[in-house]
Amino acid sequence: MRIQIFSTSYIVTDQRLQRVANSLATYGYSVKVFCRKHKNLSYENNKFNVKYINPLFEKGPLFYFFYNLRIFLRILFSRSDIIYSNDLDTLPGCALGSIVRCKKLIYDSHELFTEVPELIGRPITKFFWRIQEKIFVKRAKAVITVSEGVANELKKRYNLKNVEVIRNVPIRTSTEVFKDKQPIIIYQGALNMGRGIELAIEMMKQLPCYKLLIVGKGDIEIKLRRQMLESDLSGRVQFLGQLTPENLRLVTPTAWLGLSLEEDMGLNYRYALPNKLFDYLAAHVPVLVSDLPEMKRVVEEYGIGIVAQSRKPIDLANQIADFFEDKEGYEITLKNVKKAAEKLCWQNEEPRLLNLINSLKKG
C-alpha cells in the first residue's frame, strides 16, 4: 500500500513527521513524504522517500494557496492509496486531491489550528481556516490528534464519531544523563507568542545561580534577545538556535528542569499536550508546566514535576527554588520521570497508528 504524507514543516526538525513515516515504512508500507526543505539542516533516511515542495512565497495567504495547489497537483499526477494530511494547512489540497483521485484521506490535526495565538485579533483569517476545516474534515476516513481535549473539541465542532488520540511522544531510547553542576533550566520549541518564554527570562532575574537554555527559532526571537540584553542576563540566558533531534538529545539531558509555560490564550494552548513535555521526560528531565488541564493531568498523574501556581516571575522562581531545595522530593520526582518515560513513548503509541491504517486498508 502506498501512502503519501503532506506537510508544510521541515522534516529534519519535525519529529512527529519522522516517527509516523518511519513506523509506516518499517511495517511494509511504501511511504513518500512531501514537505519543505530546510535551508541549513539536511535529513537522510533509508526507509522512505522525501520529496521537497519549494514554496513560491514564504508566508501569508499566497504561501498556503500555492502550497496546497502543488499538493493537489502532486496527488493528481502520482500514485497512492492513502493521502495523509499533516495539519489543517495541508488539508485543502489533500482533500481535493483525494476526491478527484478517489483515495482515502487521513487528517492528522497536530493542534487546534483555528485557535492558535497567531490568529487572535484576526477574525477573517480565523473564519477562513475554520470554514476549510469544517468542509474538508468530513472527507477524511480517519481523524487523528494529540490530546483528549483537542479530540473532544473536534468531535463537538464537526459532529465526528471518532477521533483517534496518538500523543506526540518520542521513541524510547537508552538515555545517558550527565547533569551540569550549575542548575540548568531549558525551554525547547518554537519561539512564538504565548509560550511563556518572556516569563522564563524575567524569572531568571530571581535565580542568580541558574542558567536558562532556549532552543528553537520563531517570530519573537529578536524580541526575546532584546529582553535578555536589557535585563543584563546575557551570561545566564543562552540561545542555541534550532537543533536537529540528534543534537537536541545531547543538550536536553544536561538540564535540571524543562519548561512548558504556555499561556491560556484560547483553546489551542488550553488543550495542548506539547511534544517538548515528552521530550523532557525521555531525557529524564522533570518539568514545570502551566496550570492547564492536559499538561497538569499528565504531571500530576505521573508525579513528574511541578505545576505553576502563579505567572508572576518571583513566585515561579520561588517555586523552582523550593523544588530543588527539597532534595528527597526531587529524587522521588527523578525516579517518577524515568518510570513515565518507559510508558509515554512512541513504542506504546505506534500500535494505534498501525491499527488505524490497517482498518482503512481493510475498509
Topology:
Elements: E1 2-10, H1 15-26, E2 30-36, E3 49-52, H2 60-76, E4 82-86, H3 91-101, E5 104-109, H4 123-136, E6 142-145, H5 148-158, E7 164-165, E8 184-188, H6 197-203, E9 211-215, H7 221-230, E10 237-241, H8 245-251, E11 257-260, H9 267-270, H10 275-282, E12 287-289, H11 293-302, E13 305-307, H12 313-325, H13 327-343, H14 346-362
Parallel strand pairs: 1-2, 1-4, 2-3, 4-5, 5-6, 6-7, 8-9, 8-11, 9-10, 11-12, 12-13
Helix pairs in contact: 1-14, 2-3, 6-12
Separation of the first and last Cα atoms: 13 Å
Task: Find the CATH superfamily of the largest domain.
Answer: Glycogen Phosphorylase B
Encode the helix/strand succession as letters.
EHEEHEHEHEHEEHEHEHEHHEHEHHH
The proportion of strand residues reads 15-25%
CATH topology name of the largest domain, in short, is Rossmann fold
Polypeptide structure, described:
By secondary structure, the protein is an alpha/beta fold. It has 2 domains: 2-169 and 347-362, Glycogen Phosphorylase B (Rossmann fold); 184-343, 3-Layer(aba) Sandwich (Rossmann fold). The chain is 44% helix and 17% strand. The protein has helices at residues 15-26, 60-76, 91-101, 123-136, 148-158, 197-203, 221-230, 245-251, 267-270, 275-282, 293-302, 313-325, 327-343, 346-362, and strands at 2-10, 30-36, 49-52, 82-86, 104-109, 142-145, 164-165, 184-188, 211-215, 237-241, 257-260, 287-289, 305-307. Strand 6 (142-145), helix 5 and strand 7 (164-165) form a beta-alpha-beta unit. Helix 1 (15-26) packs across helix 14 (346-362). It is globular and about 60 Å long. The model has no long low-confidence stretch (mean pLDDT 93).
